[in-house]
């Protein structure tokens, strides 16, 4: 294009000057001088234009080659030859675009591997108690276990396992609804204080069993627009975690207050702090902290906090955790529901 523009401009100018020179009836030496000067000017202009055009074409080819040679890792390396200013800008933009693509792909891969891990862990967590229950049922069926004490113990054990599995399947169902974006919230003006009171009442037996003191400090006038059922579940997940991770004799403090435009609900426990490197991962699906994933007596599936985050985000809120005092503090921030 550059060459065509230059050729057209030069030939049009040349033709014009030649025509004028001939028409103006300049004769002899002056006419030759004019024509020679014009011819040399035209040739020089064409030459410069051609050289420029070749440089630009070569640079743009090297840019195309660089794009074609982007490795599967998705890292773009600009061509080693220096580029003209315009192409340099395009090169920089390409580099940024490839970087964004690469990060996106990495994130996708991490999500995919988390999902695969979840399926593997959950099937493991479901299989272990099922195998135990099967053994107990077979023992009962064959009459191997026939003394009343053992029979009663087996029944209790089976009941406990069934409850745990039911909870886990319910959690998985809730999580899949959150991830599919099909969580139906029926929002209504709700007092955060009432929600805290209900939650504390519900987890009281667990706290007593674990000998953990429960304490609530809720401002009665903290209105939020929320689905009380779902938000209650999120808060319960936090409080149950806090009770489970607080040693006997410790305290779990649940606080609800409003500041300016936001409502804040926090759960402070005495867990002794979460390792710094685990803090950003506690809300990940299937994250359970310890490396060995052998389910303990009340070992969960690592879904509670992922569900809490999904529910809070569906309410346009935020959830976070920091280490504080004798343990850690989980905080839910929600927009304040106006009257
Ligand atoms: N209050 C807390 N104090 C210390 N560690 C915590 C606390 N809450 C969560 N964690 C850590 O984060 C992990 C994930 O918690 P999450 O509630 O998602 O799963 P879980 O409690 O193990 O299982 P689930 O809630 O599905 O029964 C826990 O296993 C624990 O390591
Ligand atoms: Mg939990």
Brief overview, please?
The chain is α+β, with helices and mostly antiparallel strands.
Structure notes:
The structure is a single chain. By secondary structure, the chain is of the alpha+beta class. The chain folds into three domains: about 1-70; about 115-180, Orthogonal Bundle (Helix Hairpins), CATH 1.10.287.130; about 190-335, Heat Shock Protein 90 (2-Layer Sandwich). Helix content is about 60%, strand content about 15%. The chain contains seven helices and seven strands, in the order ααααβαββαββαββ. The chain has helices at about 1-25, 30-70, 85-140, 150-180, 190-210, 230-245, 305-315; strands at about 190, 215-220, 225, 250-260, 260-270, 320-325, 325-335. Strands 2-4-5-7-6 form a five-stranded mixed β-sheet. A two-stranded antiparallel ribbon has the order 1-3. Strand 4 (about 250-260) and strand 5 (about 260-270) form a beta hairpin. Helix 3 packs antiparallel against helix 4 (about 150-180), helix 4 (about 150-180) runs parallel beside helix 7 (about 305-315) and helix 5 (about 190-210) runs parallel beside helix 6 (about 230-245). The longest helix has about 60 residues, at about 85-140. The chain is elongated, with a radius of gyration of 37 Å. The site of adenosine-5'-triphosphate has 20 residues, from helix 6 and helix 7. Adenosine-5'-triphosphate binds near residues 269, 304 and 305.
């Amino acid at each position: 294009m550059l060459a065509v523009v230059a050729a057209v401009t030069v030939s049009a100018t040349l033709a014009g000057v030649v025509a004028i020179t001939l028409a103006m009836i300049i004769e002899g030496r002056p006419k030759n001088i004019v024509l020679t000067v014009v011819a040399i000017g035209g040739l020089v202009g064409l030459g410069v234009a051609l050289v420029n055009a070749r440089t630009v074409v070569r640079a743009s080819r090297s840019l195309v080659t660089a794009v074609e040679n982007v490795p599967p890792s998705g890292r773009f390396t600009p061509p080693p030859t220096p580029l003209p200013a315009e192409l340099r800008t395009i090169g920089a933009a390409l580099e940024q675009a490839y970087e964004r693509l690469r990060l996106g792909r990495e994130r996708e891969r991490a999500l995919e591997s988390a999902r695969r891990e979840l399926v593997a862990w959950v099937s493991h967590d479901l299989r272990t108690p099922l195998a135990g229950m099967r053994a107990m049922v077979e023992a009962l069926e064959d009459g191997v276990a026939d003394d009343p004490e053992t029979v009663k113990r087996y029944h209790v054990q089976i009941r406990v396992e069934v409850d745990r599995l039911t909870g886990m399947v319910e959690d998985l169902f809730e999580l899949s609804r959150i991830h599919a974006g099909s969580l139906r919230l029926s929002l209504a003006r709700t007092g955060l204080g009432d929600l805290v009171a209900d939650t504390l009442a519900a987890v009281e037996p667990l706290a007593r069993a674990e000998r953990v003191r429960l304490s609530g400090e809720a401002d009665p006038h903290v209105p939020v627009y929320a689905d009380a059922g779902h938000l209650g579940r999120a808060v319960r997940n936090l409080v149950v975690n806090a009770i489970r991770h607080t040693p006997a004799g410790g305290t779990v403090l649940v606080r609800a207050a409003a500041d300016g435009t936001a409502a804040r609900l926090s759960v402070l426990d005495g867990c002794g702090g979460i390792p710094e490197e685990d803090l950003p991962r506690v809300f990940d699906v299937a994250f359970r902290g310890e490396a060995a994933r052998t389910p303990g007596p009340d070992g969960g599936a690592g879904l509670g906090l992922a569900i809490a985050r999904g529910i809070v985000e569906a309410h346009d809120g935020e959830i976070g955790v920091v280490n504080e005092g004798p343990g850690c503090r989980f905080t839910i921030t929600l927009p304040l529901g106006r009257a």
